[in-house]
Amino acid sequence: MMEYAWLIPVMPAIAFFFLATAGRRLPNWSAIAATGTMAAGFIIFWFVLADWLSMESLPAVKAFGFSIDWMKAGGSTFTWGMVIDPISLVMLGLVTAAALGIQIYTWSYMAHEPRFTWFFAVHSLFAAAMLTLVMADNLLLLYIAWELVGICSYLLIGFFYERRSAAEAAKKAFITTRIGDVGLLIGILLLFAKTGTFELSAIFALVENGGLSDTVITAAAVLFFLGAIGKSAQFPLHVWLPDAMEGPTPVSALVHSATMVVAGVYLVARMFPFYEHSESAALMVTLIGAFTAIGAAAIALVVTDIKRILAYSTLTDLGFMMFALGAGSVTAGMFHLLVHGFSKAILFLAAGSISHGSGQTDIRQMGGLWRKMPITAVIFGIGALSLGGIPPFGGFFSKDEVITAVFDGRGLFFMSIALLIGFMKALYMGRVFFAVFFGKLKPENEDAHESPVVMLAPMLVFAFLALTIGFVALNYTDAYQGFGYFVFAGEHQEAFHLNKGIAIGSIALAVSGFILTWLAYVQGSLKTEPIIRRFSGVHRVLINKYYVDEVYQWVIDKVVLVFGRFIAFFDRAFINDIGVNGTGAIATTTGRLMRYVQSGKLYTYAMGMVVGFLGLALAWWVS
Amino acid sequence: MELYHVEMLSAALFAIGIYGVLARRNAVMILMSIELVLNAVNINAVAYAAFLDPGRLVGQVITIFVITVAAAEVGLAMAIILRLYRTRATANVDEADSMKW
Amino acid sequence: MVGVVNGIDSVLLFTLVATPFFGAIALAFFPADRHVLIHWYSRIIAASGLAIAAYLFITFDTSDDLSKYIVDFEWLPSLGIRFTLGLSGITVPLVLLNAIIFFGGVLISWNVDHRPKDFFIWLMLLVAGVYGVFASRDLFFLFFFYELAVVPMYLLVGVWGSSTDFGTFLRTKEYGAMKVMLVLVAGSVLVWIAILAMWMEAREITGIADFSIAGLSQVEFSDGFQKLYYPFLMIGFGILAGLWPFHTWSPDGHVAAPTAVSMLHAGVLMKLGAFGILAVGMVILPVGSRFWAPTLIGLGTVNVLYGAISAMGQKDLKYVIGYSSVSHMGYVLMGLGTLDILAVDGAVLQMFSHGIMTALFFAMVGVIYQRTHSRDITVLEGLGKRMGITGVFLAVAGLTSLGLPGFSSFVAELLIFIGTYRTYPILGVLAVIGAAITAVYILRMLGKVFFGPIDEDKWKDLTDANRMETGVAVLLTGFLLLWGLYPFRIVEIIDSGVVPIMERFGS
Amino acid sequence: MMEADVHFELLWPEFLVAGLAFVIFTLDFFLRPERKNILAWVSVIGLAGILAFTIPYLLDENDSLFNGLYRIDDYALFFKVLSMAIGGVVILGSIHYVNRYLTHPGEYYAILLLSVLAMMMMAASGELLTAYLSLELLSFCLYILSGFALQNKKSNEASIKYILLGAFSSGLLLYGIVMLYGAMGTTSFAEMAIFLEGIEDIDGRLLIGLTLLIAGLGFKMAAVPFHMWAPDVYEGAPMPITAYIAVGSKVAAFALVLRLFAEGLLPAIEQWNVLIAGLAALTMLFGNLVALAQTNVKRMLAYSSVGQVGFLLMGVAALSTLSSNGLMVHLVGYSVTNLAVFFAITAFYNVTGKEEIADFAGLASRSPFLAAAITISLFSLAGLPFLAGFVTKFYLFSAAAAEDLLWLAGVAMVASLISLYYYLKVIREMYINPAADGEGSTIQIPGLLYGLVGILVISVILLGVYPDPVVNMIEDATAVILPGGDASTLNLR
Is A12 helix (H, G, I), strand (E, B) or coil? Predict the structure, then answer.
């Protein structure tokens, strides 16, 4: 079955071309087409996985790939190829499942949208691009897919383009990520210039056997990480992700939490050999990851728009993953990526169903909603507890994995930071959960209602996954000896190992976090206002997201655009009006002056002749 | 008498003629000055014929032709000057400057 | 006239060049008021050209020798001028490009009802000139057709163009027309000087008066001579290619020109310059071009960044696109300047894909302008609601120009980036940054014009692109996607044309 | 010491033209005023007949009468043919103008014919005095013709300026001739060449003589700074005569100059080619720059033809077989094109009586044919492809380049770029600007002018598309005056 793996991305691609061309004529088919192909891809994935697991001598097989010639130029051949290996399998599973579920959810959520078809078309294109991205066996194809998911996110964020804010957010998202992509592309060019190939396997081989100088490796690693910073919204290019919540909720759930934004993490994991061989680059990843995580978590504690809270928590988790990768553990990173994907998906979907049911987006306007929408409450709770890191939810395992990895890789100090992040995660998760569902029901929310089954079903599935997925970390059979073993295809054992001390510590912190928020938002004995008043300055800074957006806006308005206008003016006023028109003016003016030699008086003419004759004679005489 | 004496004479005549053309405003006077130039030519021609290649008559022939042509030229010019006088009631060429630049 | 015609392919090539020319002459005898007839006639002429060009492109055999395309007649023996046509891997795509854009331009001109006869006559002459430049193998005729392609621009812009008042300054169509004509002819003067110099030098070296490119490329010009006269070619052709700082004719020309002319102007005319640098300068004066390559690539980089940045500062749609063409031609010049085979391949492909892309741009801008009578992006807002199709295709063009994978420009720019980075890493980085800036102004334009709330009562009866215009857009988009998704064939063809040139540089 | 046997029969063409002129004079007496057009037709048909007779009669005839005074060869033949053709065209183009604006058609046509005779003689004369005489004959005819609009002040002013300056210039010319005679003891081109071969450096007499010669001929050619009569005469003279002066007298002057420099002064080329080159550069730049500032179309064309003289002088400066070919090719192209544009304008003037550039506004709608004709001719003058001007300029500039005058060719290209600018201004008026109020009426052109201009425009295009036949003729003509290099030794493949 594995030779048909390429069908997984092709399926939604077909759906896209179908919808983009014929979609206008038969809108009713759009949902079926998109979801059908997605489901097909999902099924194929399972067969592929089964094949993979059933392969004998698994440790020997690192990857299964194939490729086609894309173009030949100047003696070098450019190929398009796909590769199946553990990392891509993990991503495939996540993406197909999430995309499928969220499309089903979308059936009713977007039912009344005029651009229903358009949504599914772009959604399918995104799925195709994302799947290609995770299966690409060479940097060229990876970059192509990378750009395509970017444009899809642009189109999806700008889905409600009549809203100026949505349009701006879309533009911001694309341009910000594009800045990172510059780094990525330059990195790719650098590698091609040095190695003459885009093939990942070949490049890794060179990295392993020292075919590339350390400077090149470090440079490439840093440049690739630039791309990751853009895509995965790490500081300082994180500003686009919160705004991206302008998009429809399913988009936020799929693109901006579960799949696309983790492409950066995936990239770093994929290019991991580079970071293994470049300590400085790895350290950079760690620091930026940790920095982003803490900064975002702090904001998540104060903002009140439910989707923005989730967005900042996404930032935190992304930073968390980078943190793990930087600490040298692909396993932990990918594992947290997987778990976070499902947990955050259900949180967004639940949030969507909340605003769908109650029409509220600000948590201060909510409270006690569990009476109105119990199932949603349960689902949201699962997600919140999972990401809050309460055992036995998946989030606990992954978080613990990360903290352990950080401890192993970076030592005590960084571990304490990781623990702090874990605690903050628990705090804001508890905050949003309790604030929304507990406390007394607000009168305006009296007519809030539970969402239809079509929306609940996928949420329930994801909830179940979020609940159970943690256990894939554990060691079951010889063929599958735990997630770490799987990710590394058994090359060096990194089976799940629970560090008792760390585990207890993190559990304690998580639980205490939830208890604190329970006190604050349900039981009410802990008042938040005095704290806010006490640290009003800090609070203001956090509410304003450290003013980063303002700074960027100022730079764009006052520097970039002004410079652009200046150049435009310079071009017109100097190069054109003076340079070009000036030349013409000189000619015409000279003519206008010279014509006055022609006085109309006879003797001038005669004089002209005499002068000419004398001049000739003189010139000749001199020469 | 050497050749260059004659040449000087004709050169002087030539110069005077040119001066006349440049300085005079009356069409007839300008014509006269041109005649001076032509006579300078004649003198030169004859002189060269006499001094440089005696025996051949090229110089003389030139002179005869010049004189003839000059006569015709004067006639024609006079006619046109008459037209000028008719249309503008003046023989002053400076007043005939409606076309310029 | 003793001459040779080698088989059906060469006959087709000759027909391709001759069709629009004689088509124009025939059109001169049409009754001027039969507009429908004139339009359909022009469409047929354009379509036949497209058919021939497509046939030549498809059947082009990259392994075969190219003599089967040669048409050769003695024309003016006393100067050694021959009328010689031929094809190469470089020219085939460009000929196809010209055919496509001519066809699209004729279709998009369905709304020309002011003296359409004259309009199409001049348009056909322009196209004939462009075909001629691409096909000529003799410098005299290359120059001949080069001028022929320039001349009609004057009347096309001057008569059918539009004047715009930008408040602080005014751009009349007369001004634009005069400027385009004079600047381009000024460029051709430099080219002319270089051509004569090469002819004279070759005549003194070999004792043979010969204008043929093939012949001159065999001559061993002294290094000093090459270094002296290559700049004439570089700048002379460069002016037509929008080389900084001789580029201002291009945006102003666009602002004044009617849609179809803008399409041809940016789509094809500017390519003539780059083509000349490659097919004349680099072929005949390799030493000179190697010597001046850094200058060319430097200026190309300036083009890229300068064009992109000033495009950011524009308010008028056509200015935005005009400067974006300046910027994109910069990539072409960079690619040529690297003398790196991948980059030169990329440059030629960029000529093709930029041609199609910018034609699509101008077609859609023409649609908007015809509907709203405005090109001011501060005035237009939220048109996407009423003009969805137009918006989609303008977005396609925009995404192509910011180098989105899946569209042909990505392939071209990728090749150029690779080649540039291999030879001049810093400039390679700058080029990539330029592509990022492109994203800024393109998205700014799209966001302002098509996104946001629409002024309902102002654009109450705003109509979307009609069938004809949509057809043009689909045609162009099809080519962008085709070469973007699977460039194998076209790159193969281009490569077959570029390799022999590059071999002269020993790379 | 003349040979006894002078082949007078070789002069038949000249005799016939002269005879035709006198036929017209006499016929004039017997025709009622409204029948005077017959005169024009007679002279045209007569010229055509003489043309038809001359070509086979003198082809490849190579003889020189009165030991070298007067030449009968292909070079002379070429210019004879050209002169007669030009004369015929001008007469045809004049008919309507004469009927409308002029009196005394008999004299008009007869004098025109005499001037044609003079042109034929100028091309044939192989000796300075003969050249001078034929030149004066031509000048006299032109003096009269330019003043032919008796009641028109401008016309009269033109002729008075023309004749006074012309007389003055012929004074200079004569003085130069005589100086040369004094310096070299001869006035025949061939002997001058032999003399110049002998000497290594030129003395004062020779220098002054040559300078004055150049000045005098420069006046005829209207080379800066001896050109100043040209704009006024062009503007004042009757329209067909302007065309005739612009084309005919230039052709004749260059016929003479080319033969003089090729047969007589070639040995001293290093002495004068720099001067001529400088003169050429000055002329082309001045002419074209000043033309930018003109508002009267005739005056603009006057300056533009001054600029053209600069191009032509370039061929003299770089004197060689190739460049004299180039000069003559350009001369032909220039003549055809200028005749086309002038008679197109004449047709316009016959109807409207206007000659300001602004008056051409909206001509494209008033008379598409005239607009197209003028556009094509102006583009040809500017040297744009498919038209005579492109090929001839290319040929001429290539020739100059081949003689290491690439810099001059460059200047010439810039000059023709400038010229394009003011030609485009006319075209803008015709095509872009709408007609002034009350002048939208369509212009009816008489069939004769229609046909004439049409034929001229077609020949402009033909010359541009396939010049090879003309070039071959010219090569034969050049082979006579420059026996050094015929086409075979030109290193052609």
Answer: helix
Exposed, middle or buried, A306 (CB in 10 Å: 0-12/13-18/19+)?
buried
Chain A residues in contact with C414 by the CB 8 A cut-off are: 140
Judge: C405–A158 Cβ closer than 8 Å, yes or no.
no
- How many Å apart are CA D370 and CA D457, to the nearest integer? 11
Using an 8 Å CB-CB cutoff, list chain A residues near C404: 147-148, 151
Backbone angles phi, psi at D28, to 5 degrees: -55, -35
Interface A-C, measured as beta-carbon pairs within 8 A, has a size of 149
Strands A76-84 and D70-72: unpaired
Do the strands C3-5 and C71-76 form a parallel or antiparallel pair, or are they unpaired? Answer: antiparallel
Residue A57 burial by Cβ neighbours in a 10 Å radius (0-12, 13-18, 19+)? exposed
- Please, is D152 exposed, middle or buried when counting C-beta atoms within 10 Å of its C-beta (0-12, 13-18, 19+)? middle
Under DSSP, the state recorded for A3 is G
Cβ–Cβ gap B21/A603 under 8 Å: yes
Q: Which residues of C200-211 are buried (b: 16+ CB within 10 A; e: fewer)?
A: bbbbeebeebbb
The answer, yes or no, to whether the previous bond of D225 is cis (omega within 30 of 0) is: yes
For residue C212, the one-letter residue type is: S
Determine, for residues D432 and C178 on separate chains, whether the beta-carbon distance falls below 8 Å: no
CA gyration radius, chain C: 22
In a domain, B100, yes or no: no
Q: Does the beta-carbon distance from D391 to C76 stay under 8 Å? A: yes
Region of residue B100 (phi > 0: left; psi between -120 and 50: alpha; otherwise: beta): beta
Size of interface B-D (CB pairs under 8 A): 116
Taking Cα atoms as reference points, which of A88, A98, A68 lies closest to residue A5?
A88
- Which residues of chain A have a pLDDT value below 70? 1, 56-65, 475-482, 484-498
**CATH at B35:** 1.10.287.3510
Range of the domain at B70: 3-95
Domain count, chain B: 1
Determine the residue among A595, A597, A603, A607 to mutate to test chain B binding: the one whose Cβ has the most chain B Cβ atoms within 10 Å: A603
The residue among C278, C275, C300 whose CA lies nearest residue C289 is C278
Residue A489 burial (CB count, 10 A): 17
What single DSSP character describes residue C245? T
Specify the amino acid at residue A415. M
Residue count of chain C = 507
Q: Per residue in C172-224, pLDDT tens?
A: 888 999 999 999 999 999 999 999 999 988 888 888 888 899 889 888 899 99
Residues of D in contact with B80 (CB under 8 A): 143, 147, 156, 159-160, 163
Report the chain A residue with the minimal C-alpha distance to residue D288. Answer: A591
Interface probe, candidates A602, A607, A610, chain B, greatest B C-beta count within 10 A: A602
Taking any CB pair shorter than 8 Å as contact, residues of chain B touching chain A are: 18, 21-25, 30, 93-94, 96-101
pLDDT digits 0-9 by tens, D107-132 = 999 999 999 999 999 999 999 999 99
Closest Cα to residue D424, out of C193, C171, A584?
A584
